[in-house]
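G., the chain you wanted modeled:
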Amino acid sequence: MLGDRNDTFYGARLVADARLHLGAIMNGQYSEAFFVTMCKIMSQEIYLGYTTFTGKEIKLQGIKDFFYNSFYGLGLKRGTINIFLANCSKAAISDRTQTQYSMRFIRWLQKQDPVFAFPQELFEYKRLRYWVACKYRRRKSEMWLRLGLLQSIYHQKPHLLQDIGVNRKYEDVVKCAEENDISEVSKKFKPIELYKNPTLEQVRKLAEKLDERLDKLEKRVLIAKLIELYKLGQQNDDSKAVLNN
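Predicted structure as tokens:
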């Protein structure tokens, strides 16, 4: 428990928690806990000073001092800031939360010092992700298709992101992907066995195999498309029933 803001050691708890989750970020992993904690450290200005667990009042000279201070900050090693920034960008791409703490932290950090320069492609990606989610929110299969292509564009040719959108070179993510020969990266697996008239057990095993092979985004595309086809089938069945009656 981090306690509340009235806790004497609230700042020290936040710093300890941030240090605990920093390893995940430096290893290129996404850690929501790290960004949530860093946003609290920002809003409470803990990076300027706090009371340690021994009762010592310490003062820091700003966010860079906080990052590099081995005793009272995150303890980043000199020369690793570029790795830290790159991994924060990577983590922000993986952030699927509504609160978007990673982007809050990144937007705040880039305003503090020129050394904290994040690639513009990151912000273009987030712009397009929001645009796609809003435009295709009622057409889930199309939305997830575009989000998958958007990730591929970001990883393969990120400079194209700035050219996608209303009144830009490419009016849609799909158009950009098609004209630049970009497709979602597919993994090679042995073919999955399919049956003409599968039993419920065989359907269950098929679902398990697909779960093993698809990532989170791919699963969403599959689920959205199956639901779409299921509803279409239901409508056709209802139409046939009306005609037969």
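The radius of gyration is 24 Å.

Shout if anything looks off.
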